[in-house]
Every structure is written in structure tokens, then in C-alpha cells.
Amino acid sequence: MSAPQEPWQWPEEHWRGLVNRVRAGRSLKPRQWPQGARCAVALSFDSDHETNELREGGESIGRLSQGQYGNRQGIPRILEILRRHSVPASFFVPAVSALLYPEEQRRIAGEGHEIALHGWIHERNAVLPEAAERELMLRSADTLERIAGTRPVGIRTPSWDFSPATLAIAREMGLQYDSSLMADVDCYELLLDGQPSGVVELPVEWIRDDAVYFNMNRFAGLRPCTPPADVFDIFRRELDAAYREGGIFQLTLHPPSAATARASGSWRS
Ligand SMILES: [Zn+2]
Predict the structure, then answer these.
(1) Interval between CA 126 and ligand 1 midpoint (Å)
(2) Model-wide pTM > 0.90
(3) Engineering a disulfide at 158: which of 40, 84, 114, 119 sits with its beta carbon 3.0 to 4.6 angstroms away?
């Protein structure tokens, strides 16, 4: 008997099954933050560099040069600002970026920041066969560990999506957290098929991602142009809300966008 093809024909069991593969479980918002802090700030940088172009099989020398900018200008500027303010951050690094720039990863780790998983070549993990996804996640963890000296404990999936197998693989690998999903403003435990997985979700949001405002693709419809001051205003409102609610302010930034940050001065806190 073949299953009905159209979503409006799906039996309840089917759509419930899809929804329940990965869900938000108990909230992990703490009653209070350490040292009496009003809220937490989680700064993260996705060092995609050239993998943004390579992952789709692209060979554009122009777009690859934009990736190299992340290494030559983006990361050094970011590290300098973090150092000036003594702020630790998380860097999500595709293994291919780490292989292209091992010194960059050693410097980031050496300055006390976290290096975590972000795919092999920024591949769309959600569409991979399970065996390929597992092999790439393990190989990426081995590669980051070899280069940066510490085995990663967290993952941000490229493009912020899961395959039906991603969470099970993350748990198998003993990863402590993921930062790719959006079910809450505060941290929560991920449920796998309705059961607590032990994996913490540190939720992201497109409005707290600089790529939404600054990325552009010449040959597609993607040409956003939000003035840096407006982006800063959006981020500041998010921070204000987290402060009011005693929650977490999480930000996703991309090293190639650091030039815009330079223009706007939005990095000064
Ligand atoms: Zn990325």
C-alpha cells in the first residue's frame, strides 16, 4: 500500500512523526546567571571563508576572494576587538576552512576562544545520506582537533538545518550542544523522537545573523542593503530584550562582514 502523496492526505500519524523527530524539550533558562549578571551574551562567528563558494561546486575567483577576505581582514579585526574587551567567543569552522588556514585556528584557540563544528565544506548536511553525514561530522571533528588541539564539543550545522539523522549522530559523538535551531529565545534540551537527548540547543535566529543584512548574490534575487546603523539598532533591541527578560542574547556573525562593521563602528560596545 503506497502512502498518499499530498500533505493534506497524510494521516495524522505521519505528520506527527515528522514534527516529533526533533523538538524543543525542557527550557534551560537559568533562574539566575553567574555573578549576578542580568543576561548572557553569546557571540559567535562562522568562519565560512571560501567554503561558501565551494560547497555548491562554485569556482568563482571573485567569490573565493571574498572568502579570503574573511581570513586576511575579518578574523584579525574580530580577534583584536575581542581581545580589547576581554570577551571570549565561539568560532564555527568548516574543516576545509581550518585546512586552508590552520594558523588562524591556532591563533583563535590560543586566544581562548572556542572552535566548534560547522560541516566539512559547508555542505548542506540536511540532504546527505546518513552514512555520508556521519563520516563528514567525524572527519571534521578529527580535523579541528588535530589543527586546534581540542576536540570540538558543539556544532552549528551549515545552513541551520538537520537531516533526520543529525541529532542522533551528534549524540553519538558526545557533542554537548547544537546552535542551529529556532524553537525558543532561551536555551533548551533537544528531544529526539520525543525523548530527551542530553544535547543542549543554543537557539539562533535569522534576525540576529549579519548574513541576512550584508550578503548579496549578483545573479540571484539576494541584494539586501540594510544600513549598518539599522542592523546595529536591530541587534541592540535584541540585546535590550534579553536584558529585560534575563535571557540570552545570541549573535551570529561572519568574518567577511567585518568590513561593514568597520564602517559603522557597530563593534564598539
Ligand atoms: Zn556558515
Answers:
(1) 14
(2) yes
(3) 119
